């Protein structure tokens, strides 16, 4: 992506995006003409029931899939029609991921799991990579657990390792796919408080969730149904929405 001209504007901008699958010979619109932009530092929750298109949206935003048609500008550069190899490079350089199932290497220490993105990128060198991974583990509250494997960590601690790994290459945006789906209530609150801290530090977070209480931590709520955005609601500097307020927002959007 070096040498390419960036377009000024939003960190993420999709325009008139479609994702169409053939099911039984009939076209199914997983995304149906969606347009959406996300600015630097926003904390966005994408919500909707199963089949609404929210996971398809996240996969395309995260360069894990490509649209059937439409435009996707990421950090000012068009990525909608990139090859798989190019998308892999973009993911490693510009994107961080946090998954419901953590996706940690089971026989590898927390420290080595966090180091992985830079092993692929090779930007820091061995010493710099280790120092940054140590710093990130301390940042997420895991100082002293660097040598622990995932089996030696609780679910909440494993997700903290995953968050540290997502931040390793200092990406402009972190995507979180149901990040509390496998956690108990206490761990879920701790993880969402950590996301809130990261958002307050200026890190852009785009999260998919179907849980109103988890979505309430975000400052913007995008509600989807049948591949379309039904509502896009920003807090605009006001107080964080309560769980009940988010639930009402979703209900009104889907009415």
Number of helices: 8
Q: State the CATH class.
A: Alpha Beta
In order across it, which strands form the biggest sheet?
Answer: 6-7-8-3-9-10
Compute the average pLDDT.
90
Low-confidence stretches: none
CATH superfamily name?
P-loop containing nucleotide triphosphate hydrolases
**How many beta-strand runs?**
10
By CATH, the topology is: Rossmann fold
**Anisotropy-based shape:** globular
Return the CATH architecture. 3-Layer(aba) Sandwich
Overall number of domains = 1
Instruction: Write down the Rg.
Output: 18 Å
Structural class: alpha/beta
Distance between the termini: 43 Å
Q: Helix fraction?
A: 25-40%
Characterise this structure.
With 255 residues, this protein is α/β, with parallel strands linked by helices. It has a single domain, classed as P-loop containing nucleotide triphosphate hydrolases (Rossmann fold, 3-Layer(aba) Sandwich), CATH 3.40.50.300. Helix content is 35%, strand content 26%. It is built from 8 helices and 10 strands. Strands 6-7-8-3-9-10 form a 6-stranded mixed sheet, sandwiched between helices. Strands 2-1-4-5 form a 4-stranded antiparallel sheet, with helices on one face. Strand 4 (69-74) and strand 5 (77-78) form a beta hairpin. The longest helix has 16 residues, at 185-200. The termini are far apart.
